[in-house]
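Human:
If only I could read backbone structure tokens as easily as an amino acid sequence. I am handing you a single protein, as its sequence and its fold in token form. I hope you can help me see how the letters and the tokens relate. Thank you; the sequence and its tokens follow:
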Amino acid sequence: MNFKVKNDTFLRALLRQPTEYTPLWMMRQAGRYLPEYRETRRQAGSFLGLCKNPDYATEVTLQPLARFPLDAAILFSDILTVPDAMGLGLYFSEGEGPKFKRPLRDEAAILALRPADVDKDLRYVTDAVSQIRGALNGSVPLIGFSGSPFTLSCYMVEGGGSDDYAKVKTLMYNEPKLMHHILEVTTQSVIAYLNAQIEAGAQAVMIFDSWGGVLSHAAFHEFSLAYTQRIVDGLIKEKDGVRIPSIVFTKGGGLWIESIANTGCDAVGLDWSMDIGVARQKVGDKVALQGNIDPAVLFASPDAIYREVERVLSSFGFGSGHVFNLGHGISQHTNPEHAAALVAAVHELSRKYH
């Protein structure tokens, strides 16, 4: 396996080392906004068919890199592969998003929950990681990822997405011990899963705490951050003599940026609601920052995209430690030419800050 990366700007930025420009990748960069992705998904027959076939997962991971000069690839998968491997029975209804056949609705089901057998039930993911890493041939680094225990637990208890998180919050407040049991088992699964991705070739890993921001201050620290901390502590930090950086992204987590930075992660991902300059003042040199342009900016004209890129870059200011990204996933309705304008603008405008 190729250990040298031709373009390691992303990895250096995560470790706050000098770079010539600000690197970028985009959340959900392999996705429905690309016609080639839609075609591959049609061939695969379903979203899960895409995720569970390493050939298809490799193909769609590489598609955005063929189109744009991005500075990192991210494994094509879904955060819900972990609860699926824990026996909850993931399926997708047309137009309705992910659902579970066996959500955690009673004490017996919760106490019966066991960690995922990563080697057996998530082998298709680690096989995809190895295959993608080989196909990249050292061009750019590969990011592996997982959902956070709290975010995964939301889906596991609710049985799918939710507008009000009523089921999971009721469980959390009524039966905190049962909630902690779900989080404990899920944390063990996530640590094993991310480390398996690192062993298979992931060069950085990201924890998506997509729903952490729906919690109160006290609940976030008890039910989300404490478990994210455990994962960061449990990660493989070095492979083949090379550091493996970690990124933590809590959507709506700007209020708690100092606490998140204190987990020991290398970088904190920001959604678009927080000024990245303010974030940098709060965390100092403790971590790198990733983000955080509003994905909806990509609906606007290339001139508007250019202005907003300059706004984010100037807010972060001079020096290294910034990975440019969207504040959340790219919309399926985005014009790919506007994504190209974003990439070009970041690469052009950021050089003066380094």
The chain has one domain: 23-290. Residues 176-200 form the longest helix (25 residues). The chain has 16 helices and eleven strands. The mean pLDDT is 97.
